[in-house]
Design brief:
The protein has 254 residues and is of the alpha/beta class. The protein contains 8 helices and 7 strands. Bound molecules: nicotinamide-adenine-dinucleotide. Nicotinamide-adenine-dinucleotide binds next to helix 1 and helix 6. Its EC number is 1.1.1.35. It is an enzyme of class 1 (oxidoreductase).
Length: 254
């Protein structure tokens, strides 16, 4: 898919991996619609990115809001690419320190945000792409964001792992499901990326995290995620795949 002039939507686009992807997409000549919470900096961020960027506020777990935000992208000549980055974790244990059962609300919150949000990105994104004419045999492409926690979840990540493993599981199923529509689906599973999520960490914790990455021994740069996302959108033969972007890290239990 040639991105020049195409309309794309990036959820979680006001910050971190989503924002870095928006910058890469703009460099490739695409139009970008940043979809993020109304409380985010999305409006200002989009204004700073220039005329090819716009902000559409939405909570990705709210189908109506999310559909409206995608429409704002679709109105710019047809939605061809979705990069779904909105997501977060919330630490929890199966049993708390007193041996009490962990919070089902914390489990449901993260599964709803990460997994149901991703299903919304698939179904609402594909609904719009399916209306378009195919170009070189394809109508569009969707990228979801998992995590290495989908494969080696750490202690305290039971809810996050469940949601991210669900995204990895959905990837090939979604690619098959949407094949007849000419829509590709791929997923990026990042390791430890240097986004605002990690900016709050103490310097010694950050240094230890960097040392745990085999090569290169540093945190991932958000731009490296954006670079892969753009490549996944562009490469018409890449489909149904999850790619780890992690410097070969394999997470320890804690
Ligand atoms: N940073 C990492 O090390 C890392 C590693 C693996 C996976 N990830 C995943 O990458 C994705 C992006 O993370 P990031 O590091 O860029 O985080 P970030 O906090 O910098 O950005 C996430 C963005 O998502 C938005 N968001 C949160 N809930 C939302 C909702 N309900 N609706 C719409 N927008 C919402 C936030 O406002 C924020 O702008 C997440 O899915 C995260 O789980 C991050």
């Amino acid at each position: 898919m040639k991105l020049e002039g195409l309309s794309t939507a990036i959820t979680g686009g006001a910050s971190g991996l989503g924002l870095a992807t928006a910058r890469r997409l703009l460099d490739a000549g695409a139009q970008v619609t940043l979809i993020d919470l109304p409380s985010s900096d999305g409006k200002q961020v989009a204004a700073d990115l220039g005329a090819a960027a716009q902000f559409a506020p939405a909570d990705v777990t709210d189908s109506e809001q999310f559909a409206e935000a995608l429409d704002a992208a679709h109105e710019r000549g047809g939605l061809r690419g979705v990069v779904h980055c909105a997501g977060a974790g919330r630490r929890m244990r199966i049993l708390d320190k007193d041996g009490k059962a962990g919070s089902v609300e914390d489990f449901e919150f993260v599964v709803k945000l990460n997994l149901v949000g991703s299903f919304n990105a698939l179904r609402l994104g594909a609904e719009r792409m399916a209306e378009l004419d195919a170009v070189d045999g394809e109508r569009g492409a969707i990228i979801m964001t998992a995590s290495v926690a989908a494969f080696e979840g750490q202690i305290g990540q039971i809810n996050y792992t469940a949601s991210k493993a669900g995204i990895v599981g959905m990837t090939v199923t979604a690619a098959r499901d949407l094949a007849s529509r000419g829509i590709r689906v791929n997923t990026i599973a990042p390791g430890i990326m240097d986004t605002p999520l990690l900016a709050r960490l103490r310097e010694d914790v950050r240094t230890a995290l960097e040392a745990s990455v085999p090569n290169p021994s540093r945190l991932g740069r958000p731009d490296e995620f954006g670079q892969l996302a753009v490549s996944m959108l562009e490469n018409g033969y890449l489909n149904g795949e999850t790619i780890r972007l992690d410097g070969a890290i394999r997470m320890a239990p804690r």
